[in-house]
Amino acid sequence: MQKTQIYIQESKDRFLQELIELLKIPTISADSAYAQEVIRGAEKVAEFLVNAGAENVEICKTAGHPIVFGEKIIHANAPTVLVYGHYDVQPADPVDLWTSPPFEPVVKKTDIHPDGAIFARGACDDKGQFFMHVKAFEAMMKSNELPCNVKFMIEGEEEVGSENLGVFVRENKERLKADIILVSDTGMLANDTPSITTGLRGLSYVEVEVTGPNRDLHSGLYGGCVANPINILTKMIASLHDENNHITIPGFYADVVELSLEERAEMAKAPYSEENYKKALNIDAVYGETGYTTPERGSIRPTLDVNGIWGGYTGEGAKTVIASKAHAKISMRLVPDQEPGKITQLFKNHFESIAPAGIKVVVNPHHGGEPVVTPIDSIAYKSAAKAYEKTFGKVPIPVRSGGSIPIIALFEQELGLKTVMMGFGLDSDAIHSPNEHYGLFNFYKGIETIPYFFHYFNEAMS
Question: How far is residue 377's CA from residue 382's CA, in Å, rounded to a whole number?
Fold first, then answer.
């Protein structure tokens, strides 16, 4: 890997400039107004794969946004690594909270990133991270040190639930045959404390609509006489947690796998500072389910959160109305062995049951995903751990993440493959938030580390 590492060091400036090109494209999959930009993003990903040395590069159409596929088969008997990532990004709203335009990438120094971080929507999630694999692949190709077959599957719908990826995977099982799936869409504990994600929470996402009168009403003439959908909705949502922040939906915890005290003690060995956590978020106190620590609440416990709520008049000035409708978007993060479809149905049944007379409730399910726990005794995990140790000088800590990547469970179900999640982002990178960024240290360290995974994985599989 010596030639590969030299190539990486000599190409750093170009790698960054190419990432900036990609980040300038507003590939917002959730908003149909950006459909052409998403296609343009797919075309740019394909271009970078071709330039890196991939073959059979194709922009594969789906019922939604396209998937970019490419591969390099060096030998029929060599191990095969399937790299997954996504080029779509979250909406940039609220745009006025960004310190620089979300699709005009800039590099700025921060306390956590003294060497600089690139600020842009998608910088960490996931353009900056999947791009590390493209550049690591390029470096191995140009240095003639690629030890494994590589396949790339970079999609454009992860941020909206990967609705069409399952169809693509089922229809292309032969094309996607591999020995392991490699994903960088997670994070690590700190730049001086590498870690590998070994668990992800699942997801159930719903939108609710509460309807009262058949039209908006004058709040003076009708106030106190009819149910106000906004008042009712907020009461219904508030009732979903008790005084201990325990979720009140009947049966919600029935399938939750409780970790033993020994397992929780092992988790607690990971470095963590509650004071630093609060300082980073500018809060005076943490908040959550009684009986669990903050790291536990964010990884091994299920949650229910309102992601958006609206209704009535929200414009400038006053308009004294009782709204006809109120809406909310609600996500539930799930843990083993909770099943998204079952949880969605439990939510629907309960939410409809607590609506008072005179109110109509509609629950519309959106996307979901299964929780995942990956083994730490596999050849692939051990190869990843050796790669981190090589570049960071420390053995990485296995950790569970609070986030969700629904397709990880899909891959295991449809392809029979395990996944290794080699993330290099930090919790402070503000993914899904204004001022998302990705440290240059992390970007380059990922590019340096990935080739060692290929090297050690090939060694172990030979």
Answer: 7
